[in-house]
Structures are given as C-alpha cells and as structure tokens.
Amino acid sequence: MKRVIKISLIIIFGLFIIIQFIPRDHNESEPMPANDISKVYAVPVNVGAILKTSCYDCHSNHTEYPLYSWFQPIRLMMDGHVSKGKEELNFNEFGIYSSRKQRSKLRAIGESLEEGSMPLSSYTLIHRNAILSTKDKATLMNWVKQNSDSPLLKN
Predict the structure, then answer these.
(1) Sign of CA dihedral 141, 146, 147, 149
(2) What is the pLDDT of residue 143?
(3) Are 24 and 79 in contact (CB under 8 A)?
C-alpha cells in the first residue's frame, strides 16, 4: 500500500512539473491604447481609478499578473477568465464598438453593478482591493447612467 501511495505521489508531482511548460497567454499590451474608454467618454479620475482597480485586469488588454499566476493550473484558469472577460467587454477597445454597442455595454455594466455579479467573487477573494464599496458602486452607477443614454462625449 505504501508503494502505491509513493508511486501515485511521484506521478502527481511529475504531472505538476510537466504542466508548468504549457504556454501562457500574455495579456500585457500598453496600459492606455487609443481606443480606451477614457478616449471615447469623459471618465472622471475617481471612476477611472475604480475601473482600473476592479475591472481592467479581466476587461482590458493589460493584466497585472500576480506572482502566483506563474504556476499552472492557476494560470490556465486566469487566462480563461481574462479571455472570457475581454470577449464580453474590453475597455481598451471600447472606441472600436459602435455607438449602440457602447451604450449597451454601459447598461450591462449598470446591470452587473445592481446584481453584484462583477467583479467575480473568485477574483475579489484574493484581490481584496477590487471589492466595490457601496460608494464605489454608486459612483460607477451614476457615471454609467449619465453616459448610457447620452450621445458620445469625445475628449
């Protein structure tokens, strides 16, 4: 029985080492590209700070990777979350969206705030600074409401 456990542990450890060689995605472009939401809408400093702290890691082309992200399978899970998040909404490519899609995305942000579905609890579990306070939610909600029904506010 001890031999079986020992062989099993060696195999598990070997698999852990092998999966470290799975290529990682690199979501690390310039932090503020030309099509960023702040280039399309007037984004107050406080709103921009909230978005960067709580949203940009998964909803932009630039993720700040923590130390633990260098280990698989954690990185695979993170890459999946980031990929799905960017597919749903990418603040760095907001200027590429049509006006209708921009307003729709802003309304969707408001709905996520009301539901409390964003940021993901799996993200805020480790990134405690990304948890939105009641004040942060109200600030974002007011900004979203002001902009989701108004014409574009070019800077």
Answers:
(1) positive
(2) 93
(3) yes
Sequence-separated (6 or more) residues with CB below 8 Å from residue 48: 38
Instruction: Answer whether 36's CB lies under 8 Å from 43's CB.
Output: no
Partner residues linked to 28 by β-bridges: 62
Q: Is 66 helix (H, G, I), strand (E, B) or coil?
A: coil
pLDDT in tens, 95-144: 999 989 998 999 999 999 989 888 888 888 888 888 999 999 999 999 99
Instruction: Say how far apart CA 153 and CA 55 lie, in whole Å.
Output: 21
3-state secondary structure of 28: strand
Residue 17 tokens, joined: 């080492």
For position 70, what pLDDT does the model report? 74
